[in-house]
Amino acid sequence: MRKLKVTEMGRMSVAEFRDSKKQPIVVVLDHVRSLYNVGSVFRSSDAFRIEGVFLCGITARPPHPEIHKTALGAEESVPWKYFEKTEDAVSLLKEEGYTVLAVEQCEGSTMLQNFQRQPDRKYAIVLGNEVKGVQQQIVDSCDGCLEIPQFGTKHSLNVSVAAGIVLWHLSRKE
Questions:
Q1: What is the pLDDT of residue 173?
Q2: Of 39, 103, 32, nearest in space to 71 by CA
Q3: CATH number of the domain within which 102 lies
Q4: Distance CA 101, CA 104 (A)
Q5: Domain of 44?
Q6: Looking at the domain assignment, is residue 95 inside a domain?
Q7: Please, what is the angle between helix 35-47 and helix 159-171, to 10°?
Q8: pLDDT tens digits for range 159-172
Q9: Assigned domain for 11 exists
Q10: Contact at 8 Å (CB) between 110 and 147?
Q11: CA max distance for the chain
Q12: Cα dist. 72→13, 126, 128 in Å?
């Protein structure tokens, strides 16, 4: 097997990406501290061609060299908005008809492998702070919680890794 060169992959330009049909999914980052995690979420969001990223609270915003380092330019292709309060982002998404799901370990969570995306619905996933997770009041305002199964000794995943796993699952064609 031979690895493909970047020029052989047929990737679209930023302008083509902006004009392309997107998956009806928005990622909401609730007080994410690490700029590298923010950049990584942008990169995964580009990879799965989602509608956008909402940055909330202390979550850093582009342009920033540390975001760019992991986003590799995806912060320029993926639309984003900033909200001082995560509650405002969730409220707006609900008004716009999104089903809002926290990615969190909660009583009554739906395990990710058991979640079936409805093709006629728009979804927003809320991912939380690296230490505290999604704020309880935000969990309370969501339509449900998705939980990624874990089998080791740790009780959490890196927020950008969790975003990639959930976006991959939501993007699958069944």
A1: 74
A2: 39
A3: 3.40.1280.10
A4: 9
A5: 21-171
A6: yes
A7: 10
A8: 999 999 999 999 98
A9: no
A10: yes
A11: 51
A12: 13, 23, 22
Count of domains for the chain = 1
Report which residue type is found at 137.
Q
Provide the 3-class DSSP secondary structure of residue 124. Answer: strand
Identity of the residue numbered 163: A
Helices (H), the chain: 14-19, 35-47, 65-71, 74-77, 86-95, 136-141, 159-171
| Nearest CA among 39, 60, 40, 29 for reference residue 134 | 29
Contact predicate 127/163, CB 8 Å: yes
Q: Is the pLDDT of residue 86 over 80?
A: yes
With contact defined as beta carbons under 8 Å apart, do 141 and 106 qualify? no
CB of 91 closer than 8 Å to CB of 56: no
DSSP for 73-105, please give it. THHHHS-EEEESSHHHHHHHHHHTTEEEEEES-
Find, among 103, 113, 116, 106, the residue nearest to 146 by Cα. Answer: 103
